[in-house]
Each structure stands twice: as C-alpha cells, then as structure tokens.
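Reply to dn_fold:

You asked what the input looked like. This is it:
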Amino acid sequence: MRKNVKEEIMLLAGNDDKMQKAIIQGKEYKKDVTFGFLELLGITRHDRKKQRYKPLIENLGKLGITLDIISEEKAQAA
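and this is what came back:
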C-alpha cells in the first residue's frame, strides 16, 4: 500500500470510531462520504471524479471497508 493512501485511510478512520473498530476487528463497514468531506479532511484529487479515488477505494476494500462517494444533494437528503 502506498504511503499517501495509507495516510488518507488514517485520516478517514481518525474521524470515525466505528471505522477504526471495523479495521481493527477485521469486520466489514460501509462509509458514505462526499467530495466536500474528503476535501475537508485534506484528501483531494485534481478532479472531483470517483475514478480518481480508485486506489483509496480499492485499498479500503481490502480492509473490508466500502467507501461510497455520494453527491452533496444525496447527503443532505439523508
């Protein structure tokens, strides 16, 4: 796993106790985030496209974490 992806996973997990527990216990977990939330944490890409976050999403998947990037509108409706 690349260092930058590892740091991004640590940033995400650092803000979510349930995600931390899932990683430690080897359990599955689903996290919905917006591009705005990722940017707020400092996890940015040149374009706001899910494809740009593929390495992060794939590495989280190996840990049993499903990361779903949703639209701001969908997040506000939830």
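DSSP finds five helices and two strands in the chain.
Hope that clears it up.
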